[in-house]
Design brief:
single chain, alpha+beta, five-stranded antiparallel β-sheet, four-stranded antiparallel β-sheet, 3 helices
């Protein structure tokens, strides 16, 4: 049975109170992202779900909203990776090979080039996890990938941006024309 996935959907870099969304599983989350690609870098993002409440700085934002803040982060059932550097297409293929056994989705970011690919990766989790656990899981998964890739490609093969392990961090959707990969297991 598919479990609903809750997430936030924002319009652009300046949208600090994104819409709260629910889809009926990971496949539907991927479909949402695919159908909300950005026309350019910095448009359309998703992140973890946010609770309704006051901003941490009520002097600047006096109304209650679903602010994209650590203090509003709700548990979520997906993990995001931001790979800022891969030393060529062979490293990218190795990463895709590592995640293909998981219910996951990957896409090249707006800054990606064939020589230096960059990707975002979303991985379905089997339960909701809180902010602290999500950061721990992201760090552990990053270390596992790095360890597996060092054997083949050396220490400088890949670099991650760990900020996306925080559920309040925006993950910009792929831009129109960016390559993407879906690895979907049954019931997700």
């Amino acid at each position: 049975m598919k479990s609903p996935i809750h997430f936030s959907a924002g319009r652009d870099t300046y949208d600090n109170s994104p819409l709260q969304m629910e889809v009926d599983g990971f496949s539907s989350l991927v479909e949402h992202i695919e159908t909300h690609r950005g026309a350019k870098k910095g448009l359309n993002y998703m992140c973890g779900p946010m609770s309704l409440g006051p901003h941490d700085r009520t002097d600047k934002h006096p109304q209650e909203a679903h602010y994209r803040l650590a203090s509003h982060a709700k548990p979520c059932s997906f993990l995001t990776l931001d790979i800022d550097y891969m030393n060529g297409a062979a490293v990218q293929e190795a990463v895709l090979s590592e995640i293909k056994e998981l219910t996951s989705y990957a896409y090249e970011t707006a800054s990606s080039t064939p020589e230096v690919p960059r990707m975002r990766v979303l991985i379905a989790l089997d339960r909701d996890v809180g902010r602290r656990e999500r950061i721990t899981l992201g760090t552990a998964f990053q270390k596992q990938l790095e360890t597996n890739l060092v054997v083949k490609f050396g220490c400088a093969a890949i670099e991650f941006d760990p900020s996306v392990y925080r559920p309040e961090q925006p993950n910009y959707n792929p831009t129109i024309g960016a390559r993407s990969w879906k690895f979907l297991c049954a019931n997700r």
